[in-house]
Structure formats: structure tokens, C-alpha cells
Amino acid sequence: MVTQFLFATGIENSNPTIRNGTVRVDELAKCGHYTHWKTDFDLVQELGIDFLRYGPPIFSTFLGDGRYDWEFCDQTFGDLLRRDIIPIVDLCHFGLPDWLGNFQNPDFPHLFAGYAKAFAQRYPWVQLYTPINEMYICATFSALYGWWNEQLATDRAFVTALKHIVKANVLAMQAILDVRPDAIFIQSESSEYFHAENPAAIKPAELMNARRFLSLDLNYGRRVDSEMYEYLMDNGMTREEYSFFFGQSMKQYCIMGNDYYKTNEHRVSADGTTVASGEVFGYHVITTQYHDRYRLPVMHTETNLWQGPNGNEAVNWLWKEWANVLRVRNDGVPIVGFTWYSLTDQVDWDTALREPNGNVNPLGLYDLNRTIRPVGQAYKQLIADWRQVLPAHSICLQVPIVRPGESDQQWARQKQNDARSARKGV
């Protein structure tokens, strides 16, 4: 049973399509994971990390309704089980299989739930999940900015993508719980804020600051405010679709994951256009806003910064984010984990994956030669220093996190039986 703070990293597995669906951006391939996956798992252990945000490439695993190719997944997850690394399984990271099309497809939610259930049945020792990564960002970049997948740029397309993505996430949680009743879901969601540049920009900034909550409002069954209700109804959501998100009783299984980067804060002009503002409020202030809204345990599920010319830029950002985590915790927010994302450098995120330029982004704990960066050394030391100081103290963890190697033990099976009985009583 795991009771310590959840120090984590992740292996980047984004896979959206661009250029009208003709080009697949597969970060697992770009970053060399298909070739170096055993080495990558070695590096996770070298850092002293127990928790890994990781998932199979959905586009090559989910072949059709009820059809799957588990070959790569069996190799990698079998090795994680052998190593006793605890995965936080990311089942959908910005892309869909070609046969499913894109997030405008109304069949996506039910089909994805079937995929999630099949995964849980094949790997019953997995307990922690992020069914769909960054639901708000996925819908925004695909259907409001026109960058990925459907490459649409309208409010109606955004609402359509969002309602399908969040419904798919909810149905996947239910499907996984049918198999693993003590599953815990860590929603990795971007935490945003929009600053008005001048008085004329206050109204569009307020609209954006309301819209940033839509994915989690729907996911957790929190009724949206009147302006957002009108926005959803005006852009194609029906009252029946809206009502689906209430009464699902899913919140009790969740940890709210907050992702924060320097690019998460925006300056809004009077015409509604935005530019990156850089860090103004920071993780502490914005995460407190999200916690006040949802009253859930929190995990800092993503952050990073490029290693710049001085070589210490990422190290200083790590220190700043960790200081924010401690401040949030000391203010009474039940924060249970922290993540530097990702394990290795990434490729082409300088253009948000819109252009396949092959640009290496130096923001990993290791470079793509698998040589540790200064921030990797610093994170390894941070974990060693703080591991025993910050025990998880969240009510969400009354159902304990079971290590993969313990999943067959009698006490672990009993915990699942207790969770199954409790779920039937909900």
C-alpha cells in the first residue's frame, strides 16, 4: 500500500492529426520511446520515481469496435508490472484512431468507454487513470483554434467536441470502475487564467474565465453559471445532453489534476484576441481558484520549462513550482502529488505540434540521448529530500493506492470487494 506523496513524471504520448488528418503527430515516435522504452523505464527508477503518467498509443492500439492490438502494450505494461512502477494510465492524449475520425464524432464516447473497459480487463492490476488528458485543451486546440484533428474554429464545433470528450471521460470512468472498483481517476486538466488588458477587455476576459471551467464542471456534475448555460445551448448542446452530466456520482473517485505552465496565463484585448502573459498569478493562486470551485484533492500533474542558455532555467522553475506546491498545501488544500512532464525532451511543442519541423524542445528530465539534464538531477534530489516529509493526507485516498506487485494479495482483493460493495450502494 502506498501512502507517500505522489512524485511523478510522464512519457509524452500526444498523437493528434494535422494537415486535415493526413499527418499523425506521434510523440512516442518523435521522442524515440518505441526504440528506447526499456531504457526510459530504467530512467524512471534511476530518479527514484514510483508514479509514471503513461499510456498506449490509442491510434495503433484501438483498431475498431471491439478490436485491439495489444502487442506493444503487453510488452510495456508487463515490464512496468515487473518493475513495480505505478502507472497513471493516459488512454487518450489529443488524438483518435483514423477510423474514429475526430472529436465531432457522436459515436466516440461509447466506443471509447468500450476501449477503456477492455484495457482495464486486460491489465487488472492498474488502479490509476487519466482517461482523457486535458479535455479543455483538446477541445480548444481541435475545434476552437483549428490546430488539430477536425481543425475547426467555431464555438459550435468547440461545444460539440467538448460534450463528446467529457461524456467519453465519464463513461470511461464508469466502465473502468465496473472492472476495478477501487480505481482512482486523476484528471490532468490545464489550469488557465485570462487577464483583461484594459477596461474594454473585461467582458471577453470574464467570458474566457468562465469557459475555462466547462470541462471540469461537466465532468464533476457542477452546474454551470447562467452565461455558460446559454453559451452551451446556443452552440448545439441539448438540455438532455446537459442533464447527462448530473447524478453520475463520479466525483468521489477523483483527484483534480492541475497542469500549469508559463503559457497558461493570457492577456486579453478588447477584441477578444489573446497573447501569452507569462506567469502573473502563478500555480498557487490559480490552483486555489480551482480547488475552491470543486473541493477535491489536487495533484500538480504537469509542468516544465526549457533549459536555456544559462543551464539553470528549468532548475529554477522546478524550485518555483515546488514552492507553490508547498504554499498550496500549507494553506490547507489537500495536494497529493507533483509531476515534471516529461521524462525526456519533446519535439515540436514550440509550435504546439502544428508543424512537423523536428525541433527538439529541451524541457525533459533527460535529453533524447537519455543523458540527464540539470533539472533531472535537481528533481532526483528534491524527491530524495521530501519523499518522507509529505505523506498523502487526502480523504480521497481512503481507498489506498495498491502497488502493481501487491494487486494479487488478499488484503488488496478485499479492498476491491469492499469498493465494489460500496459502489453498488451508491
From TrEMBL:
Record has Transcription regulation as a keyword: no
Entries under Pfam families matching the protein: Glyco_hydro_1
A single GO molecular function term of this UniProt record: hydrolase activity, hydrolyzing O-glycosyl compounds
Domain of life according to the entry: Bacteria
Basic and acidic residues compositional bias, start-end: 415-426
UniProt keyword Hydrolase, yes or no: yes
Region (Disordered): 407-426
UniProt keyword annotations, A-Z: Hydrolase
GO BP term, pick one: carbohydrate metabolic process
Protein name, UniProt field: Glycosyl hydrolase family 1
